[in-house]
Amino acid sequence: MTTPDAMALSGEAGDVSLQAPTDNRSNVLDLDDFSAEEITSVLDDTGAMVEVLGRDIKKVPTLRGRVVVTMFYESSTRTRISFEEAGKVLSADVINMSSSGSSVDKGESLLNTGLTLQAMGVDVVVIRHPHSGAPYLLARHLPQVSVINAGDGLHAHPTQALLDLYTMREKLGTLLGAKVVIVGDVLHSRVARSNLWGLTKMGAQVVLSGPTTLMPLDLLSGRDELEEDHPFAQVDVDTDLDRAIEGADVVMALRLQSERQHAGFLPSLREYIRRWQVTDARMARAKSGALVMHPGPMNEGIEISTALAHGESSVIEKQVTNGVAVRMALLYRLCAGRGRRGETGQPN
Amino acid sequence: MATQGNHSPERQIMDAQEIQRALSRIAHEILEKNRGVEDLVLVGIHTRGVILSQRLGENIQRFEGNKAPLAELDINLYRDDLRARENPRVRPTKFPVDVQGKRVVLVDDVLFTGRTVRAALDAISDLGRPRQVQLATLVDRGHRELPIRADYVGKNVPTSLDEEVKVRLTETDQNEDVIIVKLGRR
């Protein structure tokens, strides 16, 4: 893989890295259009935001006068609250909208709701939607609004992936060459999909494990035809978790939705637990000090054992804390440089 | 660097030795004004202010035998021109001591409009209430837009608005000097 290596080599170039990479991004829809340099710079900014969150008074005036609307067409606790906190710590005005109780109940289309928000002068829309691609529709039709994808259908959840990358980099020092095992329902996981982009771009070695029925064969079929330097060319699938976990730096368990069993993806929950639950015994095969991660919400006792979820190797709560900082970094990035009505800058 | 005719696009206003002398004078002045290092904190503004504050700290330790704590401040979250800035980066603020009741010496490389210092004052006051805030700068180039002045100045340099003052330090740049660059049409 050439990209991350090349990046690691040029990463020392002093001021160049301060100015070069970001292409004045106006939306965050998935990580497929992020370069390794841009991911690195988001993670660096996140570190600065972590410092702000550690203060006695967690408030900076950066986004005064900016309006952030969270539009959640699906239930969520951590992601919505995390965005709300991120916006508020940066002094943006955050308005939460949920589909029930809004004009969505009256049959208003997503696009018209978006146009309404744009007409109200909203700066950033954070959207979670059960349909893959919904954030792209908004991004395409709302030129004056920045759109952040907070999870769309089975497709992508880029802010979760970025907070996962930050948590791993913080603990491991680098993602380059790290072995990351993602376990469980990869097929239905937008978290796993965005993580695949992020991890492979950063040069991590990714292994997917779980029942064959829940492996994303769509993503990996035709892998042989992939160019050698395509990010996914190096991703492995190993349905034997005990073997996959060997020497891992990170093991990420995914939420197993019980509906999957009824839909015929699993013979029985019991068998799933026996073969793919992430447990202390299995973690013993990983590197010592390996991290246990989970995007939440957890089904303790199903995809992850309770002891492990709250044990020493677990960084699951750390993920939640870092989530606020990552979202601050993204809000900051999207709002900066967006001068209105031809406002121009001058140096200090 | 190519020069065109007699008008060189850049000219040096301080060399490495002059920078060193200015920093050792400023270190003495800081010690004189504050009567030692008690309750003193040197706060560097990212990026070059941090390096200059470290050098001042080394000087102070050499002259006095006592260390003054060093802190790093990033003021990007406090700027008043976020909309106009493309791709701004934020670097971590590091404050190893409580700012409450301290004599803070802000350190920056160039004092120009004063807006960076204004942002730094806001950033500091979000962290606590210092007893006093002083300002040290390697170069004061004039053109203030705010009522701000420096307590310690390495060199006063009259400039015009179509010029840029660049402080280059070995830690971040190839060279060690201060130059004035004539900008193109603005």
Task: Determine the fraction of residues in helical runs of chain B and give it as a percent range.
Answer: 25-40%
Q: What is the SS-derived class of chain B?
A: alpha/beta
SSE string of chain B, helix = H, strand = E?
Answer: EHEHEEHEEEE
Largest sheet of chain A: 5 strands, parallel
What would the average pLDDT of chain A be, to the nearest integer?
Answer: 87
Strand order of the largest sheet of chain A: 7-6-5-8-9
CATH architecture type of the largest domain in chain A:
3-Layer(aba) Sandwich
Number of helices, where a helix is a run of at least 4 consecutive DSSP H or I residues of chain B: 3
Q: Largest beta sheet of chain B: what is the strand line-up? A: 3-2-4-5-6
**Can you count the beta strands of chain A?**
9
Low-confidence stretches of chain B: 1-6
Radius of gyration of chain A: 20 Å
Helical residues, percent of chain A: 25-40%
Q: Catalogue the unreliable spans of chain A.
A: 1-22, 339-348
Description:
The complex is a heterodimer of chains A (348) and B (186). Chain A is α/β, with parallel strands linked by helices and 348 residues long. Chain A folds into two domains: 22-155 and 321-335, Rossmann fold, CATH 3.40.50.1370; 158-316, Aspartate/ornithine carbamoyltransferase (Rossmann fold, 3-Layer(aba) Sandwich), CATH 3.40.50.1370. In chain A, 39% of the residues lie in helices and 13% in strands. In chain A, helix 3 (36-53) packs across helix 7 and helix 3 packs across helix 15 (316-335). Residues 1-22 and 339-348 of chain A have low confidence and may be disordered. Residues 1-6 of chain B have low confidence and may be disordered. In chain B, helix 1 crosses helix 2. Chain B has helices spanning 16-34, 48-64, 115-127; strands at residues 10-14, 40-45, 70-73, 103-111, 132-140, 152-156, 163-168, 177-182. Chain B has a single domain (12-79, 90-182), classed as 3-Layer(aba) Sandwich (Rossmann fold), CATH 3.40.50. Chain B is built from three helices and eight strands; from the N terminus they run βαβαββαββββ. Chain B is globular, with a radius of gyration of 17 Å. Chain B has a five-stranded parallel β-sheet. Helix content of chain B is 26%, strand content 27%. The chains are: A alpha/beta (348), B alpha/beta (186).
